[in-house]
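Human: Here is a favour to ask of a fellow structure person. Comparing notes only helps if you start from a blank page. Give me a protein, with the fold worked out from its sequence. Please set it down just below, with no commentary around it:

Assistant:
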Amino acid sequence: MPDTLLPIPTTDHFSVVRLTRAWYVVALSSELGSKPLGRTLLGVPLVLFRDSEGQASALLDRCAHRNVPLTEGRVVGDRLECGYHGWQFDGGGACRKIPGLCADRSGEQPGQSVPCYATREQDGLIWVYGEADERPATEPYALPVVGEEGYTTVRRVVEVEASLHATLENALDVPHTAFLHRGLFRGSGVTNTIRAVVTRTRDSVQAEYLDEPRPTGVAARLLAPGGGTVTHFDRFLMPSIAQVEYRLGHSSHFLVTSCCTPVHDFRTRIHAVISFKLGLPGWLVRPILTPIAMQIFRQDARVLRLQSDAVRRFGGERFSSTEIDVLGQQIWRLLRREEKGHEVQDEDWRREIVLEV
């Protein structure tokens, strides 16, 4: 069946999708200690805090009393206390104490609660559901291989001035690596013709690259010191996960999972979890791999900022795509379909393309 794409907007439009009924990573577990932590999700200011048992909660960062940010308060036992008048809220947003008021605060009072956001903590990450006062029907994405024997995991957080869609496409775009990351990953001047099998489901799209020799560059030599043919997958998982996976035999496995969180329409925070098992000891590879990975992230952040600057300068976006833009339009289709509430009915879809890298 031929594929009918939902087009990416052209001139005078912006490819911004806002999906609130979804889980997003807002912080590393290590970032949330004994003090309130402020974060912004989809343009909404949130405050995170831990109760006396270490349970994480997320509330709207605005006191129901006089609109003061709750991030300016403190944690008292199981409650978050506003720094202005001392109103205290539990992890569900209910007001439990108003100093000086004799009335009972044992339950929620109308108009005196703060919107609450479902929160989960797993794999060293804190996830928040984007719709307030809602019980999600799904759970956050479980990161593969984290904590498994033989794997080393590195976590890094970067922010980019780009929309969620642009950030996701960049993370999974193979052709740019030979130019923007020349010398670090591909770009030696030698090209190879490979096949990509693209498969789309209702909530994901994946490109499997077949018969791909080990890419050139410093990072690729760490991935596969002995050379050879790699197994390479790029995946998008709704609504915000970009995943790149390389395997070489049974001994070498490299997996980057980027959890992309829309802070604002044109600002995205990336929680990158890099897990690897290589022929060399993890303690030896980590100090070499980490600065290379951060250099790649910085290059991507710079070009995404330039892209966003140009979009704003010209008052909109204009795209021209070819078949080697393997995943960008498919990501856009899935995001837009979800935003429209599944008005567009998709069937599973598969095709094969040939490209040079």
Summary: The chain has two domains: 34-129, 152-356.
